[in-house]
Automatic annotation (TrEMBL):
Family: Belongs to the SLC29A/ENT transporter (TC 2.A.57) family.
Transmembrane feature ranges: 38-55, 75-99, 106-127, 133-153, 165-188, 194-215, 262-282, 310-328, 363-383, 404-428
Pfam families named among the record's database cross-references: Nucleoside_tran
UniProt name for this protein: Equilibrative nucleoside transporter
Annotated compartments: Membrane
Keyword annotations from UniProtKB, A to Z: Membrane, Transmembrane, Transmembrane helix, Transport
């Protein structure tokens, strides 16, 4: 292998001898593995955006649905409606994915996604919205498990592209919300309705684009696997699983990736325990940046004069930092050694008191500190999360094991998100 080839792999590799040996054994043993083309990486970036763009659209439209259905608990209901089916379906994907070709799962999943997202803001009853969101959660499990499985089988470059896309989805939706707030402030229109229109229309377009690129992306990914495996990769669209994985197989693969599966669980559980629930309780030093309370409560004099309140600016800061962190493994020539990854994630526990002390008791009352803490919090979340998702499947040997490893990693990540959301809601109630 060339020195250049080794440097490329060092961006993602855990650095152990086994991983290096596996890389050097690919192809004819003398050349670096063939890299993914720019088009293929862009395609997987788009698929990553499509994975969570609809969910970001739904959760950021809570204000619209709250006003439409006069339900103060609508944000919580939307979260439960999406996350519970999503988590259950991801567990089912681990055992049932072999029934349907990977390319078919992606095409049908993204295609159905388009329809459900397009009709969501038009539904006349809250139970219909929640039912729609529940099906979105199921579909998200199908497409998310499939995309990460495909990335796990094909290589770290594509896993990094997917993780970057997931982060970019949240950033784009947040920017659209800020645009809606500015337009509404200037024109005197309803910001939440405008934002919801932007969210769901762009969601449909993003998902339609995902449908358009899915077939070509899966074929090119299969060709790349074939080129780097000496002809042993499965044909395009079939993934690596040819039969239902039995419990012993699942246990074996889960055992091989247990370290990174546990770390990604902890990383995202910690993040969601603080963000957005606790973080959005932070108040600005400047009254104008603090949002007015929800009607019919009166807005104190001088408060809420800014079109974009501090909470939205903090969310924007998180989304930028998270996207940067998720993308860092692909931008850097060398990354954090694997033996330090667990310590890095554990050290993120320092953010718990840093956020809490900005809310109650409010010991830290500085906008500058709030934004700096949020930026480091976000970058560390994205960076550590990406390293876990990239390195976990490296421990799997065959394409079938890598596909299964990718789905197990997603299930672990989603479990951490779910625990974090629940923890954040509980913590926020006591602050």
């Amino acid at each position: 292998m060339t020195v250049t080839g080794m440097k490329k792999m060092d961006r993602w590799s855990s650095g152990d001898a086994t991983a290096t040996a596996m890389v050097m054994a690919s192809g004819d043993g003398t050349r670096a593995p063939r890299r993914a083309s720019l088009w293929l990486r862009a395609g997987f970036l788009l698929l990553g955006i499509g994975l969570l763009y609809p969910w970001n659209a739904v959760v950021n439209s809570a204000g619209y649905f709250r006003a439409k259905f006069a339900d103060e608990d609508v944000a919580f209901k939307l979260s439960v409606a999406f996350m519970v089916p999503n988590l259950v379906a991801l567990g089912g994907m681990v055992f049932g994915s072999a029934y349907v070709k990977l390319s078919v799962r992606l095409l049908v999943g993204f295609g159905a996604y388009v329809v459900l997202v397009a009709i969501l803001p038009l539904l006349p009853a809250l139970w219909m919205v929640l039912a729609d969101v529940a099906v979105l959660g199921l579909l998200d499990a199908v497409v998310q498990g499939s995309v990460f499985a495909l990335g796990a089988m094909t290589g770290p470059e594509l896993m990094e592209a997917v993780m970057s896309g997931v982060g970019l989805a949240g950033l784009v939706v947040t920017m659209l919300y800020m645009v809606a707030l500015w337009i509404a402030s200037a024109m005197g229109t309803d910001a939440e309705s405008l934002a919801a229109s932007l969210f769901f229309s762009t969601s449909a377009m993003v998902l339609a684009a995902c449908v358009a690129v899915t077939g070509r992306a899966t074929r090119r990914a299969a060709a790349l696997r074939l080129a780097n495996s000496g002809g042993s990769a499965p044909v395009a669209g079939h993934g690596g699983l040819s039969a239902m994985p039995a419990w012993p197989v699942v246990v074996r693969v889960a055992g091989a990736i247990r370290k990174h599966a546990a770390l990604v669980f902890v990383n995202f559980a910690l993040t969601l325990a603080m963000f957005p629930g606790v973080a959005l309780l932070i108040k600005s030093e400047h009254a104008g940046l603090n949002a007015c309370p929800v009607a019919p409560a009166e807005c104190p004099a001088g408060q809420g004069t800014s079109a974009v309140p501090i909470g939205v600016w903090l969310v924007f800061t998180f989304m930028v930092g998270d996207f940067v962190g998720r993308s860092l493994p692909g931008w850097m020539e060398a990354s954090l050694p694997d033996e330090l990854l667990g310590g890095a994630i554990a050290s993120r526990a320092i953010f718990v008191p840093l956020f809490v002390l900005q809310v109650a008791p409010r010991v830290i009352a500085s906008d500058g500190v709030a934004f700096c803490v949020m930026a480091v919090f976000a970058v560390s979340n994205g960076y550590c999360g990406s390293l876990c998702m990239i390195r976990g499947p490296e421990a799997a040997r065959t394409n079938a094991d890598k596909e299964l490893a990718g789905m197990i990693m997603v299930a672990s990540l989603t479990s951490g998100l779910t625990l974090g959301v629940v923890s954040g809601l509980v913590i926020a109630q006591f602050m």
